[in-house]
Amino acid sequence: MREPQWRQEGEEPDYRFSLANERTFLAWIRTALALLAGGVLLDQFSTKLGPHIVVVILAIIFGALAAVLCAMAYVRWRANEIAMRHARRLPGTMAIPLISVALLGIATVIALLLVLQA
Questions:
Q1: Where do runs of H (alpha helix) occur along 46-94?
Q2: CA angle (102, 106, 111) in 5-degree steps
Q3: What are the pLDDT digits (tens) for 58-97?
Q4: Quick one: which of 35, 38, 76, 107 could link to 66 by a disulfide (CB 3.0–4.6 Å)?
Q5: Sign, Cα dihedral of 51, 34, 29, 22
Q6: 3-state DSSP call for residue 54?
Q7: Cis peptide before 13 (omega within 30 of 0)
Q8: Of 113, 109, 104, which is closest to residue 48 (Cα–Cα)?
Q9: Quick one: pLDDT at residue 118?
Q10: What is the pLDDT of residue 46?
Q11: 93 within 8 A of 100, measured Cβ to Cβ
Q12: Cα 85 off chain centre by
C-alpha cells in the first residue's frame, strides 16, 4: 500500500504519541459502533414506543450520527498525526459538541415518548 504524502513530511513523532492517537481513534470508532447498535436496537425492539415513525427517525439519526462520527474520527486522527509531525498544537474537533447535542436531543425525544406512553 502506498504511503500518503503527509506521512513523508515533518519528523516521525514518538511512537507512544502515535499509539495514543490510534487508541483515541479506536475509542471514537467504538462510540460510533455503540450509536449504531443503539439505533438498530431502537428500531428492532421498541414495540411499545410510538408513534413508530418517530422511533424509525430516531434510529436513522443514530445510524447517521455513527457514520458521521466514523468520518470525523479518521479526520481527527489524521490531523493529530500531521500536527505531531510538525510539532504543532493539536487541532480541536466538532465531534464532541456534535455528539453531545445529538444525544441530548435523542434522549429528550425518547424521554418524551416514554412519558406520553405512560
A1: 52-85
A2: 145
A3: 999 999 999 999 999 999 999 999 999 999 999 999 999 9
A4: 35
A5: positive
A6: helix
A7: no
A8: 113
A9: 74
A10: 86
A11: no
A12: 25
The residues near 83 (Cβ < 8 Å, ≥ 6 apart) are 89, 90, 91
Q: Is the Cα dihedral 55, 61, 67, 72 positive or negative? A: negative
- How many CB atoms within 10 Å of residue 27? 11
Q: Which helix (H) or strand (E) holds 95?
A: helix 95-117
User: Which amino acid does the sequence have at 15?
Assistant: Y
Give 8's DSSP letter.
Answer: G
Distance of alpha carbon 87 from alpha carbon 9, whole angstroms: 12
* Grid cell listed for 104: 441530548
- Which pLDDT score, from 0 to 100, does residue 117 have? 84
| C-alpha cell of residue 118 | 405512560
Task: Enter the C-alpha cell of residue 72.
Answer: 470525523
CA atoms of 56 and 97, how far apart (whole Å): 24
